[in-house]
Amino acid sequence: MELEKNMVVSEFLSKGSVLKQGAEARVYRDVFLGRSTIIKERFPKKYRHPLLDEKLTHRRTVQEVRSIQRCRRAGIHTPVVYFVDYTSHCIFLEDIVDSVTVRDHIAATRLRSLPCPTLEPLEPLAARVGRVLARMHDEDVVHGDLTTSNMLLRRSGDGEAELSLVLIDFGLSYISALPEDKGVDLYVLEKAFLSTHPNTEPLFQKLLESYAASSKKSSAVIKKLDEVRLRGRKRSMVG
Amino acid sequence: MTVVIGFEGSANKIGIGIIRDGEVLSNPRRTYITPPGHGFLPSETARHHRAVVLTVLQEALQQAGLTPADIDCVAYTKGPGMGAPLLTLALVARTVAQLWGRPLVGVNHCIGHVEMGRLITQAHNPTVLYVSGGNTQVIAYSERRYRIFGETIDIAVGNCLDRFARVIKISNDPSPGYNIEQMAKRGSRYIELPYTVKGMDVSFSGILSFIEEAANKMLASAECSAEDLCFSLQETLFSMLVEITERAMAHCGSQEVLIVGGVGCNLRLQEMMGVMCKERGAKLFATDERFCIDNGAMIAQAGWEMFRSGQVTELQDSWITQRYRTDEVEVTWRD
Q: Of B6, B33, B28, B2, which is closest to residue B92 (Cα–Cα)?
């Protein structure tokens, strides 16, 4: 029976088109139950010991789905999980159509503001991201891979109505109440944000201010963020 | 023709090497080895270096068949590393530079590793995994800086291995990591250990505390052998390193990997990285223990690049520093 299930999923995948192969998983796009679907397949990593690989892959699949469900319950926009196959480690997710990554949006907005570059038009977005992340952390969900490529802006409803912010790619996420883990989550975003969008420190500052104002547990998290920032500089570097 | 001599002594290895336009003319080295169960302390390490530095300097010149007059530039490790040992070597470098009337160049130790790796392997523009007792970084060159894409948020992977070696009291000769590698070959049972990757960063203090405790318990109850622990530790640590390297490669769109640093000597790490590269159609570059492990020639090579692109360290700026980020240096010799 299990072998049959496996065959069905892999047969299904061979029909779809491979969108991309990241470090973590292979992503396909296909139609499932009449809807456009993204299928995320965590294929085995041959360089790992098989026991480690199985444990890690299973754990990450479970954590990803659990984190998405928890975010949705808190009212944060994420792709809907349609189906999970724990034998082949495949997650069938809603395909977020008609959207743009926050990364591309920031880049395009900055380009448009030339010849007089200004970050002002992006401040509301930064504040919104801060609020959404605060809500996520208050739910004790740590994303684990926060970058501006993992946030989408989608048209909600008709016309030019407000774009909704959708968080995607929960592949490294997990549940944790520790300010340390949330601080590191923000640190990962800060590093990714500033290296992808150079000279946007004030924008990220706005994001953090909005986060601090919206989250009930923010002061401990921001304190940890400050500590983690210093770690790279204070660590003993012998050898 | 430019001849550069490099002085390295940031940890327990002291090496002095001479490079002439990409050719390694000499590269003698000594290692301060402590008894099993003990690590090396700054003052004792500096004492060791002081005792041998002039002998090693003579060897470097003799093996290269050169005299001080043939040297164009004196390079030394400015940092990062241990204070007292760094100071010992810097003192000698400053003295000979003044005696011989040659300019000084202060080199970043991490960049020394990278430049040596590039020279020996001729890798074009690789994602670099720099792993040693003191450092664990994933580095990629971009716009005149060696940028750190991922790193350890606490201890270095080599430090984790060295400290585990002390717990199970294996020999530090020739190095604790080497002996763990040999024992791991005789291990077969995989024991589950904490696996901590956070985005592009890694954390090793958790796995270290776990295995330090587990070692005492499991070895006492003969649940597994020390060889099994060595095996499991390597498999877990190296998987984490391969994962963050792969992540950086995917992010940068890179098709080359270069492993440098003492832990880069480990053949199992090279093997695992090779498997990952093969699956992505990428190429793996690695060097042997002559250049993986801290040595003087790597400082000479980085110094050669810096000197030729116009960088010189004035005497008043020739201090040493224990903390020196790889991305602090302006890479004027690449475009």
A: B6
